[in-house]
Amino acid sequence: MTDRTTFVSLAGLRERGWTDPMVRDLLGEPDVRGRDPRRWSVAPVLLYRLARVRAVERTAEFGRCAAVSGRSSAAAEAGAERRRRAVLAAIRAEPIEVPRLPAAELERRAVRHRHLLGARGPGSGVTGGVADGELVRWQVSYLRQALLRYEALLDGLFGSTGRAEAERLLRARLYEAIATAYPRLARECRRRMEAER
């Protein structure tokens, strides 16, 4: 059994600012290698003696490595910010082309789409028996599904903050395009935009 105050894990080293290459180059092999008895995992638990870690952290070489790592981290953050801005600009600039269908055809496709999703209820198979508000919701859902190809604009965004912002902007643009193409669906589009905020 090892004492938690005597050893630090790889995760603990990362919290202290160590990167994997720094651990490999400055610390080398772990002082203890074993299995975590609390959970089953094929990955071994690697523990490093805390006194040795602290001694290395006081060296000039550690300071140089940490500075280089910090610059690399800043460069990675700057690259992610550039990608985020580029994706937002692409979403703003991309023309959204909504399929233009006669009202009867849009209703038929919306009902069919709803039933393909497994929904059952009043008006199964026909538009008769479906409330107008419900049919409007189905039409917006169908058109939203028809515009899924625009989701490809989000490719390359992995950070939660940037991606969430881009997804909100894209949804707003898609609903605005649907509302412009089908003014009678504008109220439902606005309701969805408000609900998704």
Note the beta-strand portion.
5-15%
Number of H- or I-type helical stretches:
8
Oligomer: single chain
By helix and strand content, what is the structural category? mainly alpha
- What's the rounded overall pLDDT mean? 83
Measured on Cα atoms, how large is the radius of gyration?
27 Å
Q: Any key phrases for this structure?
A:
mainly alpha; 3-stranded antiparallel β-sheet; 8 helices; about 60% helix; about 5% strand; elongated
What do these coordinates show?
- This protein is mostly helical and 197 residues long.
- 60% of the residues lie in helices and 6% in strands.
- The chain contains eight helices and three strands.
- The protein has helices spanning 10-15, 20-27, 50-57, 60-93, 103-116, 132-146, 160-181, 186-196, and strands spanning 7-9, 32-34, 45-49.
- Strands 1-3-2 form a three-stranded antiparallel β-sheet.
- The protein is elongated.
- The model is unreliable at 122-127 (pLDDT under 50).
Give a short overview.
This protein is mainly alpha-helical. Helices cover 60% and strands 6% of the residues.
Annotate the secondary structure layout.
Elements: E1 7-9, H1 10-15, H2 20-27, E2 32-34, E3 45-49, H3 50-57, H4 60-93, H5 103-116, H6 132-146, H7 160-181, H8 186-196
Antiparallel strand pairs: 1-3, 2-3
